[in-house]
Design brief:
Elements (H helix, E strand, L loop, with lengths): L10 E5 L2 H4 L12 H6 L17 H15 L3 E5 L2 H4 L9 H16 L3 E7 L5 H7 L6 H17 L5 E6 L1 H10 L13 H22 L4 E7 L3 E3 L4 H24 L4 H6 L11 H5 L5 E5 L4 E5 L8 E3 L11 E2 L2 E2 L10 H13 L5 E5 L16 H19 L4 E7 L18 E4 L4 E4 L1 H14 L4
Parallel strand pairs: 1-2, 1-13, 2-3, 3-4, 4-5, 5-7, 6-8, 7-12, 12-13
Antiparallel strand pairs: 8-9, 10-11, 14-15
Helix pairs in contact: 3-5, 7-9, 8-9, 13-14, 14-15
């Protein structure tokens, strides 16, 4: 175990998302989202579970804030439920929804915890999906901008840091390409269009926030997982290059360079969206920070059967919940490889290829099987994971990468999308039957890191 110390002003936080923790899906005027509808379709979620109650954060947030205080955290990355604020996604505003977030934000500020607020973490209002397919329609970008403006006007006096979107690639790929997440659509030909509409929504939303709150700090969160060639064959190297454009640079290039990846654009030219006159100029407007989510790496091989891309991302294969080692490599219970160097590789991309922007790690963490024994959760694997990845963050910083903060995923065990409640990422254990919270050893380790860094290691 390393003896990590970060600069005293480095931001340490934890992250959650509204649908994964809030519950109260039909209370106080909240409208349905695509996840409410999707999780109630039989067979879509592990054991047909849903987020109707989740962690009941809607009612229990004072207790959860107290846990963050106990860990000594600086910041809390939360997301707002668009349909709790605007039940149909556009039109009438729900004051009870705004009042809830005012109470939550006030409680955070009173506790000395800085809120980092994500506006869209995949929970598209159901009405907008029914109306024009959510981000399949260009109108979604404009409706998102209106929503961002309402939040900035009504809650911006309490929010200094905004994140427009969370992981547009995952929402596009898992929700609309593979159909394994809400809204459960399988239209691969819409991949680029949906991606572009999300990035346009980010741009328009950022413009609206800055109009209303000129002093706001605004960024976007993208997922980045380096793709390596499966073998040393030249074809596999080319496949990995294509896969990196498809999965990673599809967001970084337009945001930070003003254009989409060139080879990918050529391969997918038949499916190009309607860019509009100045879309890319607006999308590439300067960001105050880039949020990066990283958990692992992937491998790609050449595949003549894959149309257009000629690349196939192999994945890790089946790894059982308690079989954490396979072929000499370590995995989490999600089946994701533990590869700390992946986060260093991503940060070096940003430093060397994208002008070294200000970066915050907005998600990083691991799912393992956790048990409470005599009031203690000894999650030593998660401690080792966090220590190793944070050591790679610090290594990149020492090499000049401009990283200013880190948010662990997640504050607490929660509804993990298609896997339901079967995977636990939290620094806090949640007993879903009783809603009892227990800080895990990883949460106490993380709190010690925060205190050690604040004091300069003394």
């Amino acid at each position: 175990m390393s003896n990590l110390i970060f600069p005293p002003d480095f931001v340490f936080g934890v992250a959650t998302a509204a649908y994964q923790v809030e519950g109260a899906v039909a209370e106080d005027g909240r409208g349905p989202s695509i996840w409410d509808e999707f999780t109630h379709r039989a067979g879509k979620i592990h054991q047909n579970q849903n987020g109707d109650v989740a962690c009941d954060h809607y009612h229990r947030y004072p207790e959860d804030i107290a846990l963050m205080q106990e860990m000594g955290l600086d910041a809390y990355r939360l997301s707002l439920s668009w349909s709790r604020i605007i039940p149909e996604g556009a039109g009438a505003v729900n004051q009870k929804g705004l009042d809830y977030y005012r109470r939550l934000l006030d409680a955070l500020l009173e506790a000395g915890i800085t809120p980092y607020v994500t506006l869209f973490h995949w929970d598209m209002p159901l009405e907008l999906h029914r109306r024009y397919g959510g981000f399949q329609g260009r109108q979604a970008a404009y409706d998102f901008a209106d929503y961002a403006g309402i939040v900035a006007r009504e809650l911006g006096d309490r929010i200094g840091h905004f994140i427009t979107l969370n992981e547009p690639w995952e929402h596009c790929m898992m929700g609309h390409f593979l159909g394994e997440h809400a809204p459960g659509v399988r239209k691969p030909w819409n991949y680029w269009k949906i991606m572009h509409h999300q990035l346009l929504g980010h741009a328009l939303g950022m413009e609206r926030i800055r109009e209303v709150r000129p002093d706001a700090v605004v960024g976007i969160t993208t997922s980045q997982l380096p793709v390596h060639p499966l073998t040393d064959r030249e074809k596999d190297h080319r496949a990995a290059a294509v896969a990196n454009e498809f999965m990673n640079f599809i967001t970084l290039d337009p945001l930070l360079k003003g254009h989409y990846p060139e080879d990918l654009s050529r391969r997918l030219r038949w499916f190009a969206p309607d860019f509009g006159g100045d879309d890319l100029e607006r999308i590439s407007a300067p960001l105050d920070f880039v949020g990066i989510n990283n958990y692992q790496r992937e491998f790609a091989r050449h595949s003549a059967l894959m149309p257009f891309l000629k690349a196939w991302v192999v994945g890790s294969g089946k790894v059982s919940d308690r079989d954490y080692v396979k072929d000499g490599l370590q995995y989490t219970s999600m089946g994701w490889e533990v590869y700390p160097e992946s986060i260093h590789e991503v940060l070096k991309w940003l430093q060397d290829d994208y002008g070294n922007p200000t970066v915050m790690i907005t998600e990083n963490g691991a799912a393992f099987e956790d048990e409470v024994v005599d009031g203690v959760v000894d999650d030593h694997r998660r401690v080792a994971y966090l220590d190793a990845y944070l050591a790679q963050v610090k290594r990149a910083m020492d090499e000049g990468a401009n990283v200013t903060g880190y948010f662990a995923w997640s504050l607490m065990d929660n509804f993990e999308w298609a896997t339901g409640y079967s995977k636990r990422f939290g620094l806090v254990h949640v007993d879903y039957e009783t809603q009892k919270r227990t800080i895990k050893n990883s949460g106490r380790w993380y709190g010690d890191l925060v205190r050690r860094s604040r004091s300069g290691g003394t």
